[in-house]
Amino acid sequence: MKKFFPQKVMPTIKRLGQLIGLYLGLLLVSGPTSAHSGFTLIPFEAKYTAYKWNDDVGSVTIKLTPLAKNQYSLTYASKVSKFFLSDERFEHSIFFYEDGSITPYQYFYRREGTGPDKNLEVKFSTRPNKHIEISDSETVVWQGETDNQLYRLDLAKQLASGADSAAYDFINYRGEKKSYGIEVMGKATLSLPYGKLNTIKVKLIRQNSSRETFAWFAPSLNYNLVRLQQFKDGEEQGDIRLLSYQTL
Known about the structure:
Blueprint: H1 6-26, E1 30-34, E2 38-41, E3 44-52, E4 55-68, E5 71-82, E6 85-98, E7 101-113, E8 118-125, E9 131-134, E10 140-141, H2 153-160, E11 165-171, E12 177-192, E13 195-205, E14 211-218, E15 224-232, E16 235-247
Antiparallel strand pairs: 1-2, 3-4, 3-16, 4-5, 5-6, 6-7, 7-8, 8-9, 9-10, 11-12, 12-13, 13-14, 14-15, 15-16
C-alpha cells in the first residue's frame, strides 16, 4: 500500500487541482457536427469525480449556458481535499459563438485553499486595436489566442472530422501565453462511473515538460471528454472520470 507523507501531499493536491483545471477546459461538449456549421453548442451540466491512486479525492461541476444571442457562459467549480489539505478552483469564460467560430470576451479565475490564493481576470478587446488585458500584468497584442478553457472547444469538431492532430495557443490561468499540441492515439472502451463508453484517446503535447497527459473523448456524447489522466516522471498526479451528464 502506498504511503502518504504530509510534506508531499500539499504539492500533490495542488497538482491535482491544476489537472482538474486542465480537464475542465477540455471537457466542453459540442453538439452534432456538420460539414457546414462545424458543431452546435448545447447547454449542459456535467459532474466528474477526481481520483488519486484510486481514492476519491474530489468533485467537479461544469455548466454551459446561453447569455444572449450568440453569447455563452462556461463555468466550472472544483474541490479537491486530502487529509487537512484542500484546493478549490473556479473558472468563468464569457464568449461569442457565431458561424462556427468561437471568440473569447472575458475570462475569470479564482483559486483558494492550502497555500497562496490566486485571482486572475483576462479581457479580449478589438478597440482601438486587438489586444489582451491581463490583470496585474501588461497589455499584450492579441494574435489569435483564446483563454484557458475555450481553445479546447475546437477539439470536439476536429475529432469528429477525423483529424489525427491539432495545435492551440492560449492564455493560461496564470496569465501566460502557452501552446498545446494534440495527438490522436486510437480508440478504447472505458468503464466509468457514468457507464461503459467507446472513446477516442488523445495525448496532450507540451514542450519541455516531464508531464504526460492522456484524455478520452466519447463520440456517443458529442465527443465530450470523459476521462483525463496525468503523470509526471512516471507517477500518477490524478485521474478524473465522468460521473453524470445532462443537457439543459
